Each structure stands twice: as structure tokens, then as C-alpha cells.
Amino acid sequence: MHHFQVRISHKFKKLGSRDAAQSLWEHACRWTHPVSPRRILATIDRAELERLREQYPYRPNARKINAYEDAAYWVGVNVKRVQDLWLDRSPPLKILDLGCGPGYFLYLCRLFGHEGLGLDPDDEPFFRGITQFFDVRRVIARIHLQTPLPDLGKKFDLVTGHRVCFHRIGRAESGEWLEWLQPDWEFFINDIRTRFLKPGGRLLLEFNRRQDGSSFFTDEWRAFFESQGARIFRWKALLAADPNRRPQFKQTS
């Protein structure tokens, strides 16, 4: 009985948290402009994805939990990303996706009329095959500490980074990630703002949770990103090209 009460108490605390309230708000906003994952899945030859996986098997020690041939799962994930940025109902945008991986996000963006470009290292042969399958254009490059991104010859309405991990530069003996410091993030954000964003553009960074399950946004990191003009929502930080302008997830014009 005591264990049950503890579980119920934990659930109520979670429901009362800011993260839970924001999660409910996200679901409500998506409900106002539904997108059918099933219709998007119908555009993908899933048998071809399975053939690609056979052609490019898992690398030794690769995390099989990220089964990128599972189109149903990844279309579902990226439908939510598209909805949260209102890309299903905005005018055509030019989008740069940092760490584009297999290209699901940019594939969906194209279905909604946007022009996308990915940037990623060429470490994973399967990603090479699947981005070609999706006809997703990408630039082969790696994001390095305090180093400008390669010149792409154009600017974008939206720059995205999903499940950001390029800020991880190694592991401590304890197993904790060694990450960029504030000056490193300042350099990166300034590089994106000055060289890659159009005047009304936005930068979205979506972070993984920390190893203990907590948010990336400690009080210190939340204060830092807000000092850079970010709007923080759950595990995402949205920044405008102009640091003095409040960015909007819902930007349909």
C-alpha cells in the first residue's frame, strides 16, 4: 500500500511540474493542426528501408535502440517536431538541419513545401544510404569547439539541431560528459546568427536529457540561454536571429 501511495504521489508531483504543464500545452497545440503520420508513412517504401539496413548493418558497438529503419517511429517523432514549429502551415522556408542523421526531419519538411539542407559527418554508412533514399541534400562536416561552420553560400529561415550532442567533447573518468562551456556556446550562437540566419530567422536546439534523466537546462544553463534571448520550452531552446527579439514557435508568416 505504501509503495502505491509513493507512486501516486510521484505522479501528482510530475503532473504539477512545469515540464508536465508544457507537455500538455504542446499536445493541445498539435491537436489544433493535426498531421497524419499514416499518410506520410504511405509515401515511404519501408521494404526498401529494410533492404538498406541489410546493406548497411549495425556497426560494432552501435546503439541498436536507435533503429532508424523503423519509419513508423521516426515519422511519429518528426511529425511532432514539424507541428511544434508550425512547419505544416507556414510559407515555404529554407531550413538547415544540424546533425541531420538519416534525414527524416528534412524529408517531412519537403513534403510540406520547405527547402532543406542537412549538415552531418559521414560516420554512419546507413545514414548515407537513407539520406540518398529520401533525396535529402547534406553537407559533410563536423561541428567543432570554437570553430566557424563551413560557408554554405546562403542564409536560412530556420536552423535546427535535434537531440544535440555536438557540444559533448569527451567523458570524465566518472562517465559524465565533458561539454562546451558558456563561451563556446556564445561563439556557436553568434556564428549561426551572423552567418546563417536571415534577419527574421530562428535557431532551434533540442537537447537530450542528462544521464540521470534530468533536463539539460540546469538553473545555470537556463539563465545563460535566456541571457542569449532564448525562449526555453521543455528540452528546447528557440533563439531569434536578433538577440533582442522574442522568438515564436508559431511563426506562420
Number of helices: 9
Unreliable spans are 1-16
- Strands of the biggest beta sheet: in what spatial order? 3-2-1-4-7-9-8
* Overall body shape: globular
Task: Give the oligomer, counting copies of the same chain as homo and different chains as hetero.
Answer: single chain
The average pLDDT value, as a whole number, equals 89
| Largest sheet geometry | 7 strands, mixed
| β-strand amount | 15-25%
Number of DSSP-assigned strands: 9
Order of helices and strands: HHHHHEHEHEEEEHEHEE
Structural class: alpha/beta
Could you list some keywords that capture this structure?
253 residues, alpha/beta, globular
Written description of the protein model:
The chain is an alpha/beta fold. It is 39% helix and 19% strand. It contains nine helices and nine strands. The protein has helices at residues 2-15, 18-32, 37-41, 46-55, 71-84, 104-111, 125-134, 182-195, 219-227; strands spanning 94-98, 115-120, 138-140, 156-164, 168-171, 177-179, 197-207, 231-233, 236-240. Strands 3-2-1-4-7-9-8 form a seven-stranded mixed β-sheet, with helices on both faces. The protein has a two-stranded antiparallel sheet with strand order 5-6. Strand 8 (231-233) and strand 9 form a beta hairpin. Helix 4 runs antiparallel to helix 7 (125-134) and helix 5 crosses helix 6 (104-111). The longest helix has 15 residues, at 18-32. The chain is globular.
Give the SSE layout.
Blueprint: H1 2-15, H2 18-32, H3 37-41, H4 46-55, H5 71-84, E1 94-98, H6 104-111, E2 115-120, H7 125-134, E3 138-140, E4 156-164, E5 168-171, E6 177-179, H8 182-195, E7 197-207, H9 219-227, E8 231-233, E9 236-240
